[in-house]
Amino acid sequence: MDHARSLEGLLDKAEITELIHAYCYHFDRAEPEAVVALFTGDAELDYGPDVPTMKGVDEISPMISRGLAETFAATSHHVSNIVIRFDGPDAATSVCYLYAWQRYQGSDALSELWGQYHHSFRRSDAGWRISRLVLRAVGMKNFHRENMHPIGRRSDP
């Protein structure tokens, strides 16, 4: 039976969707420990070509903590159009659309980003966790990075 169409698959989709929402919720509340707890121990986090890809929570944790403490005074993340695909009962991928608003520390500067999160997930003893997250952008306004991964339009290089 197709896992995605089974009752367990539907429950897994709901749990994965809640996991995506939890990442946004805890990031916006500046709760780095709660954000990091959503990842597998060996997860990869790729915020774009200007930032080295982080591998494992030992690299992810300080980056998230530093960003929330030193870069962002406030953030607001909004996700939609979540598409989840299963690679068996214990692995999945997703793409969701993202709108992110930021206010920076020590400044009234505001920025916006329109893009997508590309996720991989793995089921663990604690439930579904993020094993890979890649941020891709289609547009930015006053964002703190110049270069971002494109979303993958046919015309993208």
Write up what this structure looks like:
The protein is an alpha+beta fold. It has a single domain, classed as Nuclear Transport Factor 2, Chain: A. It is 27% helix and 44% strand. It has 3 helices and 6 strands. The chain has a 6-stranded mixed β-sheet. It is globular, with a radius of gyration of 16 Å.
Globally, the shape reads: globular
CATH topology description: Nuclear Transport Factor 2, Chain: A
Structural class of the helices, strands and pairings? alpha+beta
Uncertain runs are none
List its traits.
single chain, 157 residues, alpha+beta, Nuclear Transport Factor 2, Chain: A, globular
Q: Mind sketching the topology for me?
A:
Blueprint: H1 7-28, H2 32-36, E1 39-46, E2 54-55, H3 57-71, E3 72-86, E4 91-104, E5 110-124, E6 127-141
Parallel strand pairs: 1-6
Antiparallel strand pairs: 1-2, 3-4, 4-5, 5-6
At a glance:
By secondary structure, the chain is of the alpha+beta class. 27% of the residues lie in helices and 44% in strands.
